[in-house]
Amino acid sequence: MKYVLVTGGVVSGLGKGVTASSIGVLLKACGLRVTSIKIDPYLNTDAGTMSPFEHGEVFVLDDGGEVDLDLGNYERFLDIKLTRDNNITTGKIYQSVIDKERKGDYLGKTVQVVPHITDAIQEWIERVAMIPVDGKEGPADVCVIELGGVIGDIESMPFIEALGQFSYRVGPGNFCLIHVSLVPVLSVVGEQKTKPTQHSVRGLRGLGLTPNILACRSTKALEENVKTKLSQFCHVPAENIVTLYDVPNIWHIPLLLKDQKAHEAILKVLNLKCVGRKPDLGEWKARTKICDVLHDTVKIAMVGKYTGLSDAYLSVLKALLHASVACHRKLIVEWVAAGDLEDSTAKEAPDVYKAAWELLKGADGILVPGGFGDRGVQGKIFAAKYARENKIPFLGICLGMQIAVIEFARSVLGLCDANSTEFDLKTSNPCVIFMPEGSKTHMGGTMRLGSRRTYFEVADCKSAKLYGNASYVDERHRHRYEVNPDMVSQLENAGLSFVGRDESGRRMEIVELPSHPYFVGVQFHPEFKSWPGKPSALFLGLIAAACGHLETVLKGGHASSLSNNGLSNGKASVKVHQNGNTMKSSNGSLNVVYSNGNGNGVHY
Length: 604
Fold this sequence. Notes:
Elements: E1 2-8, H1 16-29, E2 34-40, H2 52-55, E3 59-60, E4 66-67, H3 70-78, E5 87-89, H4 90-103, H5 113-129, E6 142-147, H6 157-170, E7 175-182, H7 195-206, E8 213-218, H8 224-234, E9 241-245, H9 252-259, H10 262-269, H11 282-293, E10 297-304, H12 314-326, E11 330-337, H13 343-348, H14 350-361, E12 365-368, H15 377-389, E13 394-397, H16 399-411, E14 419-420, E15 430-434, E16 448-456, H17 462-466, E17 472-479, E18 481-483, H18 488-493, E19 497-501, E20 508-512, E21 519-522, H19 537-547, H20 550-554, E22 574-578, E23 592-595
Parallel strand pairs: 1-6, 1-7, 2-5, 2-6, 7-8, 8-9, 10-11, 10-12, 11-22, 12-13, 13-21, 14-15, 22-23
Antiparallel strand pairs: 3-4, 15-18, 16-17, 16-19, 19-20, 20-21
Helix pairs in contact: 1-3, 1-9, 4-5, 5-6, 12-19, 15-16
Function: Catalyzes the ATP-dependent amination of UTP to CTP with either L-glutamine or ammonia as the source of nitrogen.
Protein name: CTP synthase
Domain CTP synthase N-terminal: 2-272
């Protein structure tokens, strides 16, 4: 087994996750099998109880693991399926060591950070690296490990020590360290500054790790004299210094690494030059080119409560992007804060209220993603009602599906107090209820999580056709509440159709409105299984419906034939709009222009 460690320096948010994923793509294109591990130094056992504002979205795996969003990048880029153990946290490591201590496994020894914690980290890495994740038998050839945070953080010190020991143990031909650092350009002088990277590498070497390759983030390609200076002071060969400069979308990063022969440097360090072939990224390059030149737009209104941070809905954004590229459309996402659609906002901030409704009414399609809590729920209900009454393509995910059911019960059945018991325990018409197997005392890991099977009850429905007329589908879940099965017959008699259910037939998974061009709600999260080149079926349906070409897709037509003008020259970016505020991104995402609506965007 060969290991590639990706660390970060100077500042967080440089895009280590995208870099690690891109390195995996490059090595895979060389004919190697690749697996990935993400190390998060926080004390949480997993990401499940963390607010999206704290750490971005919680990505859910097939086995029910609630993990860091970077594992979503790994799965999307590498087309692999990871496990919960591929995400290592300080909490998991300490918990495993303490459990061993309680069982007496250390035979009375004093349990310490060194060697017990560091040994546990190394054993975890070696064990997980051997788990096949690509559907083939046997372990991968290379394990790409990303260490979260920045070199010098107190919480990552045990991991740095463990990885230093690990690199020595596996030997120099089996371990490659890639350090992602920042080379800023001061606007005053316009000169690329190397001192931050020099200090970062000095700190890394002082902790027992020496970088083999430097990946430098900058606004433009590094000048040769800058490379020479970095090589001299960081003791890294100039040919092993690559630039990760700003690009229109993150699909360019593997191509950027290939053009700078990063694969040759990695294979040389790992003694794999005779094994790896010349990287074949033809399909990847073609898809990237398509994304760059798309001109015809499709506008989707995203109605949610975490609109201040795009990473809170990262997988949803990626799924929309995959579907829009498949339909040859340039994606524009209009971020609509759900609370801005509510009557209270009309009184307190009428301009904000008006702007939010203008964004919603100007969209080609409406998406209500998952979430928790009652803030903004009424605004989401208004959005679902507008989409239903005005025949606007609509996709509700998890809470979004529950919202659609509540709105239908209120507006069509006339049940004015219809609600979810999550928001109103005393409602006399509980459309959505707490699942009986859920825990009301513990939050972490107690939801209905992971891959579950949904059976189609109606073969002729839009969802089944989008899934290739399948009789069932396996999708990932993350929820505590469900549609009340005792109200299903009443809802269906009024026109709503629950076309997908679980194996028991009592848990509602997919709802459609047959009289509507595209009104679909799902209890699961289809965005977690959407890859570049393999868009999620339901997101593809939303985009195709928003473009007016759903029937072509339902009849088996290829999505790429939907563009009226084929490929046309256009601005090489995906645009994400939000009313009034420039959005924040916490993971160094490289593929989106975040805009405040006035055209002043920033490329990452």
